[in-house]
Amino acid sequence: MHARILSALALLVTIAVGCDGPLTPQECSAVELDGTCWTLLAFDSDWVVDVKVTPWGTFVSTLDRGIFRLDADGRWTALGPELWHDHLIANTLLYVPADPPRLLAGVRFRNGSMEDTTIATVFASYDRGASWVPSDGGFAAAAPNRYRVYAEGLGVDPGDPQRVFMTFASSGMLRSLDAGATWQLVLGDPDLLGGVQPHFLIDPSRSGRIWIAYVNAFGVPSVVASHDWGDTWGHGSIVKCGAVIAEFYVYALALDPNRSGRLWIGVDGGIMWADDGGEAEGDWQCDRAGPAGAVGAFAELDRTLYAAAVFMTLRSEDGGVVEDSRLGLYRTADGARWDSLPVPPDALGATVAVTDSANGRLLIGTRGGLWAVRP
Q1: Could you tell me the CA-to-CA distances from 143 to 127, 138, 172, 176 in Å, in that order?
Q2: pLDDT tens digits, 355-372
Q3: 3-class DSSP string for the chain
Q4: Which of 147, 210, 274, 341 is the 20 to 30 Å CA partner of 168?
């Protein structure tokens, strides 16, 4: 999965740039393709799990080397993995601008053994990641199936930093009204596998609306919504192309910056959309001319929406099977037409994409490093 991918793409301009800090590669390549500049910032041999741009710096969680912070001066600081245990991974990060501000890290287990336990599924740092304390209100310790309560997603009300949400172990959603100190179940069942999926979206208009991906006991995917910050939930609209119901696992959700009410979702086969927020049956539309691959992340920059995808290829090499994953990147400025952007041949499949608006770029975490993209 981490193998370099051979490609026929021609590199128009290649510039070697020196990088500060011991955790970056010895050389970061800045590659310009059709006016889009790609720079490999760090972790060229590691899987980037999550990225968050915060007032404290940019935090990056990796599969094998823990958490790091990138400061404005370009220096990296290692923040893990010795802060927990070797078998724990920071699965999701969230900056909460409460008083005092804090960085939350939701953890999961590296191997997923039934014997794995942790004192908390969420940890908090009040000093830019230098130290951490448990911050899940005892939820992990009290759960009957403790090995299944790892955090998968974190989000905060943009207008009230005391209201924080967490999805856990494909089983449910928790809500905190005290910036992550204590949590209450608002959707799902912690004793059951399946159901609530990791990915959710909080409406930035502060309407109280939250969308979350859901899969029922028969494997049928849907998107359910709440209009009161998780107090109550709708029945959910089935994700399907016309009359065809397929197992479209939902990896990402995003609102269109230029078309009011249009909700995009990234699925195994590309993208789908609905113009009323996807809450009524039959509203989901397949965009067959849009992004392909498994679309796992959206990001917005200058009112342009970007979608990052993973293309998986199995090929035979000297009698063996090699699994490749390459990156696809697409954008739309009008919510109608999606354009494909050229991608460096050694950029592997995307896992996360975020906006670094202060620097006019996207940060894309991949299965082979962290890339900065200036469209």
Answers
A1: 29, 9, 13, 17
A2: 999 999 999 999 889 999
A3: CCCCCCCCCCCCEEEEECCCCCCCCCCEEEEEECCEEEEEEECCCCCEEEEEEECCEEEEEECCCEEEEECCCCCEEECCCCCCCCCEEEEEEEEECCCCCEEEEEEEECCCCCCCCCCCCEEEECCCCCCCEECCCCHHHHCCCHHHCCEEEEEEECCEEEEEEEEECCCEEEEECCCCCCCEEEEECCCCCCEEEEEEEECCCCCCCEEEEEECCCCCEEEEEECCCCCCCCCCEECCECCECCCCCCCEEEECCCCCCCEEEEECCEEEEECCCCCCCCCCEECCCCCCCEEEEEEEECCEEEEEEEEEEEEEECCEEEEEEEEEEEEECCCCCCEEECCCCCCECEEEEEEEHHHCEEEEEECCEEEEEEC
A4: 274
The pLDDT tens digits of the residues spanning 336-352 come to 899 999 998 888 888 89
CA distance 86 to 118: 12
- What span, in angstroms and rounded, lies between the C-alpha atoms of 150 and 140? 8
